[in-house]
Design a protein that fits this description.
The protein is α/β, with parallel strands linked by helices and 221 residues long. The protein has a single domain (4-8, 11-218), classed as L-arginine/glycine Amidinotransferase, Chain A (5-stranded Propeller), CATH 3.75.10.10. 28% of the residues lie in helices and 26% in strands. The chain contains eight helices and 15 strands. The strands form five sheets. Strands 1-15-14 form a three-stranded mixed beta sheet, with helices on one face. It has a three-stranded mixed beta sheet with strand order 2-3-4. β11 and β12 form a beta hairpin.
């Protein structure tokens, strides 16, 4: 297991440009070859390059776990075909929703998907079917943008603020390890500052040593 600090395209908000599972990482076309190598070596996964509607912000528009990938309707056919060709074993679906910054609104691992409560029942079912997990509608630390504000892997979870008692009770049904931290020198949007799985974590280069320790411990790395 390893932990590294890095940036993508001179941005320390690296979670906006990639999303990782235990089996694969989807990485923005904006990343350099050296950045790709660091991510691949740290997370120990296959890396697939992609865009969404031509945007390099694949870590904002895409949500994934080891079972599936969910894309917003703005993704074009060539982008969908590219992912299907390189990840044949993974269920890939497109969802029509107004909350199309999927990663911002969905926090998933291979056991659960915490989702923005504003998703409809139909949308929640589509999320469950694609990712193969239960979708739980809830705010986390009082925010509905659960994916942007928190980090979840199969080994642990880190939240960006103070959990309410009812939120903590629900989360602990799915994750035995829950801790709190910021990243990138005080940023609360820790989901957009990190790329993490069970094998390792790459976090924005502005992250302090204290934050790095808190994130690593929370994700059991």
């Amino acid at each position: 297991m390893s932990v590294e600090k890095a940036g993508i395209g001179n941005s320390s908000f690296i979670g906006a440009y990639a999303i990782a599972t235990d089996l694969f990482t989807i990485l923005s076309s904006r990343a350099t070859i050296s950045e790709e190598k660091l991510i691949r070596d740290t997370l120990e996964t296959k890396v697939v390059r992609s865009t969404v509607d031509g945007s390099s912000l694949v870590g904002i528009y895409t949500v994934a776990n080891s079972n599936g990938i969910l894309l917003p309707e703005i993704a074009d056919r060539s982008e969908i075909s590219n992912l299907k060709a390189q990840l044949e074993e993974v269920n890939i679906s497109v969802i029509r929703t107004d909350l199309n910054a999927l990663r911002n609104n969905i926090l998933a691992n291979d056991k659960v998907a915490f989702i923005n409560p504003e998703y409809s029942r139909k949308e929640a079912k589509e999320i469950e079917d694609t990712l193969g997990v239960e979708a739980v509608r809830m705010d986390i630390c009082g925010y509905s943008t659960v994916g942007a504000s928190n980090v979840l892997t199969n080994k642990g979870m880190v939240v960006s603020g103070e959990l309410k008692e009812d939120e903590e009770k629900v989360i602990k049904q799915f994750s035995s390890s829950v801790s709190q931290s910021t990243a990138n020198m005080g940023a609360s949007s820790i989901g957009l500052c990190t790329i993490a799985n069970s094998n390792g974590m790459v976090v924005g280069y502005e992250t302090t040593g204290f934050e790095l320790v808190r994130l690593s411990e929370g994700l059991d790395l």
